[in-house]
Design goal:
By secondary structure, this protein is of the alpha+beta class. The chain is built from 6 helices and 10 strands; from the N terminus they run H-E-H-E-H-E-H-E-E-E-H-E-E-E-E-H.
Length: about 190
C-alpha cells in the first residue's frame, strides 16, 4: 500500500514539475516575481488578486534594465519591477478585527520579498469584504481573490485560473515531495 501511494505521489510530483517548467518562464533574461515568491497554501489567489497582474512582472535592478526589457517586449507589452532603493510602508490600521497582513504569509529571496512588501503595504486578508470599515485606507482581499480598494472605490474578483496557479502548483509540489519522502520511509520500514 505504501508502495502504491509512493508511485501515485511520484506521478503527481512529475506532473506538477512539468506544469511549473512550462509556466515559470524567464521574461527576456529576467526572473518573474511569481518565480520568486512563495505564499501560504490557500492564499495563492489572494496574493495574485492583491498584486493585480504584477506576479508576472520581471524583476530587474534598475530603470535602464526595465526600459530595455519593455523595449524587447515590443507590442506584446510587459511589466518590470525594480528591486532595491525603496522602502516599504507600514501595514496601517487593519480593516477588521480578524484581518491579517497579507505580507505575513509571503516568503522568498530578499529582493522579491522587498518588492512584495512595497506592493502589499496596506494589503490585508479578510474573511468577508462586507465587514471592512468604510474609512479603511488600504486594500482588503479574501482568500477567494475578491479585492476591495476603498481609495479607488474598486471591487474586483481575480480569475481562479490565472497567475496564482504557479504558486498553488509550487505549494502542491512541496506537499507531494513530503508525501513521497514519507511513503519511501514507510516502504523502508516495511
Amino acid at each position: 500500500a505504501a508502495y502504491a501511494g509512493g508511485l501515485a505521489a511520484g506521478g503527481e510530483l512529475a506532473a506538477a514539475n512539468q506544469f511549473l517548467r512550462a509556466h515559470t518562464a524567464v521574461r527576456a533574461g529576467s526572473t518573474a516575481l511569481a518565480d520568486e515568491l512563495e505564499v501560504d497554501p490557500g492564499l495563492e489567489l489572494a496574493l495574485a488578486a492583491a498584486l493585480d497582474g504584477r506576479l508576472g512582472a520581471a524583476i530587474v535592478t534598475d530603470l535602464g534594465s526595465a526600459g530595455e526589457l519593455l523595449d524587447r517586449a515590443g507590442a506584446d507589452g510587459a511589466r518590470a519591477l525594480i528591486s532595491g532603493g525603496a522602502e516599504a510602508r507600514g501595514h496601517g490600521a487593519p480593516p477588521t478585527a480578524d484581518a491579517r497582513p497579507l505580507l505575513d504569509h509571503v516568503r522568498g529571496p530578499a529582493a522579491a520579498v522587498e518588492l512584495a512588501s512595497i506592493l502589499l503595504a496596506g494589503a490585508w486578508v479578510v474573511p468577508d469584504i462586507g465587514d471592512v470599515a468604510d474609512d479603511f485606507a488600504g486594500v482588503a482581499v479574501t482568500a477567494a481573490g475578491r479585492v476591495w480598494s476603498p481609495s479607488t472605490r474598486e471591487l474586483r474578483q481575480a480569475a481562479a485560473v490565472g497567475e496564482e496557479r504557479v504558486l498553488a502548483e509550487r505549494n502542491r509540489r512541496d506537499q507531494l515531495v513530503r508525501d513521497s519522502e514519507s511513503a519511501a520511509q514507510g516502504e523502508l520500514e516495511a
